[in-house]
């Protein structure tokens, strides 16, 4: 009996160990550009942290400043024990209503990886974003990273439930 290839598989239960090489390949090299830190937690439908998710971020605006990086404008991080994650990227020169990062999320029980995007709360051009315009106004808040007092940003990813993060289908 031949096995059929499927389009996707879950990543559990041990992705952090199996993908160690892939995380190491996206460690940032020192940058002369100011950095942007976006941190958060991946939560399930009950609000519990997901400690074995893998997040990939692509930041087109960072490509030029990230030229010395092994894979410019790309980061891959595992969640920690409490579902926490953190991305450090070159700060975009002017976001102008564009996402600061595009996200792909893999997790236990998720048969098809999920796509989302994060915008910065203090981007004065959010009202002109073509991507945000496609999202109902009451759901847009799930895509906005909130600025913290120390200049970092907080963006939690909720897989289900109230304030579920908006996930996109791309063709």
Concise overview:
By secondary structure, the chain is mostly beta strands.
Number of strands: 9
Strand content: 25-35%
Rounded mean pLDDT is 85
C-alpha geometry: globular
Total tally of structural domains: 1
CATH topology-level fold name = Protocatechuate 3,4-Dioxygenase, subunit A
- List segments where confidence is low: pLDDT < 50 over at least 5 consecutive residues: none
Looking at how many chains there are and whether they match, the oligomeric state comes to single chain
Structural class: mainly beta
CATH class: Mainly Beta
Radius of gyration: 16 Å
Order of helices and strands: HHEEEEEEEEE
Characterize the largest beta sheet: strand count, sense, and whether it forms a barrel.
9 strands, mixed
Q: Give the % helix.
A: under 10%
Q: How many distinct helices?
A: 2
Question: At the fourth CATH level, what is the homologous superfamily?
Answer: Aromatic compound dioxygenase
The assigned CATH architecture is Sandwich
Describe this structure in words.
By secondary structure, the protein is mostly beta strands. It has one domain (15-158): Aromatic compound dioxygenase (Protocatechuate 3,4-Dioxygenase, subunit A). The protein is 5% helix and 27% strand. The protein contains two helices and nine strands; from the N terminus they run ααβββββββββ. Strands 1, 2, 3, 4, 5, 6, 7, 8 and 9 form a nine-stranded mixed beta sheet that branches. A hairpin with a 7-residue loop joins β5 and β6. The protein is globular. The termini are far apart. The model has no long low-confidence stretch (mean pLDDT 85).
